[in-house]
Amino acid sequence: WQEGILRRQAARESSARTYARALPIVPVRARGMTIEGADGRRYLDCLSGAGTLALGHNHPVVLEAIRKVLDSGAPLHVLDLATPVKDAFITELFRTLPAGLADHARVQFCGPAGTDAVEAAFKLVRTATGRDGLLAFTGAYHGMTSGALEASGNAPDVRVARLPYPQDFRCPFGVGGDRGAELAARWTESVLTDPKSGVPHPAGMILEPVQGEGGVIPAPDAWLRRMRQLTADHSVPLIVDEVQTGVGRTGAFWAVEHSGVTPDVMVLSKAIGGSLPLAVVVYHEDLDVWEPGAHAGTFRGNQLAMAAGTATLAHVRENGLADRAHRLGDRMLTELRRLRTDFTCVGDVRGRGLMIGVELVDPSGEPTPKQHPQPTENPTPADRTYEPLPPAPELAAAVQRECLRRGLIVELGGRHNSVVRLLPPLTITDEQATAVLDRLTDAVQTAAR
Ligand code: PMP
């Protein structure tokens, strides 16, 4: 049965399919952190719908909220009409917003996907400022539609200037730490202030507080505050993409709260729909320049997603699940960092809250040179603390396979696909966390042999 399903879908589905290649399982049932395959095997799920499932699969409060809408006879699809279900969602969303934004915020429903909200945010800041260009960061991921894609990855683009994202490991300036973040910030500053940079006054800057797909790279709080200050000084709207970091994932309800930064625009999706498709932009009322109908989309009124989302946001808030993510994430990070001593192929372990990355490297390789072209200011040789070993994507894939054999689903990512990513639900129990750590350690040991 399972083999037949896998074979038929592989034959008929587009070659663009991704997860199904690395994870040849056929999920038929799921609850909390556990997925059961058609063959009866059970897995601990650290993929969580690419970080969507803050409460895990089929959480009772989410199911109850969905059933309530179904049983009430409410319309399931209403474009952007006002409804009690939407009213409850907006009320709960605004309750959670960062303090600086909540009192002056507008929300716009954008459609099902994170990338829809990114497009809306770009169009919004372009309309509001009358300018065109955008600032984005190396290694960013904002989605797969054309606008979002322009601002993702490392490819240079005419309309989007790419700035170095601060990185400890594989720091583009070869120094890491505070000094690397400082050099990255100065680069951005020079682009905004130096007319010779050739970058015209931009319509906005977009960043992830923790890069997810880029390899789980948390931005230092001080760097985020610098970006806030710089963008404010130059009247450039700051768009923070919290599609993956939001709803408690990083140990605060929104990841910007760690740094105290108040964005002008927040892009939200994934967990806000409680496992169903929903995406919104939230922005300062001063940017609310749209004419009615200036930005539309058929699927802005998914009532089931709003109800599931309301239940999820409320449950995370009322049960302090962001704090729990912080505590448990710290424990998992501390234990995983030991892998660096035990295995030379584990180059780096990093993350924030329950957004964790383990970067695999090739111990027999030569250290990688700097990735970025010329930094604004060259670090002195004394600044150069290390040059990391080359990324090991094949080893990372082997670790993923070994994890699967041990009943653990993990995600791969990073600039070179060499980062094993853990995005467990915020409801993961202490015992499940221990099982994840044990299975991952075991998988690394086998793959490294
Ligand atoms: N922004 C970020 C930070 C993301 O992680 C993602 C998805 N991984 C997106 C945007 C795009 O979301 P979607 O896949 O729903 O279009």
TrEMBL record:
Its EC number is 2.6.1.76. The keyword Transferase applies. InterPro entries: Aminotrans_3 (IPR005814), Aminotrans_3_PPA_site (IPR049704), Dat (IPR004637), PyrdxlP-dep_Trfase (IPR015424), PyrdxlP-dep_Trfase_major (IPR015421), PyrdxlP-dep_Trfase_small (IPR015422). Pfam families: Aminotran_3. It comes from the Bacteria. Pathway: Amine and polyamine biosynthesis; ectoine biosynthesis; L-ectoine from L-aspartate 4-semialdehyde: step 1/3. Keywords: Aminotransferase, Pyridoxal phosphate, Transferase. Its cofactor is pyridoxal 5'-phosphate. Residues 360-390 are annotated as: Disordered. Belongs to the class-III pyridoxal-phosphate-dependent aminotransferase family. PANTHER family: DIAMINOBUTYRATE--2-OXOGLUTARATE AMINOTRANSFERASE (PTHR43552). This is Diaminobutyrate--2-oxoglutarate transaminase.
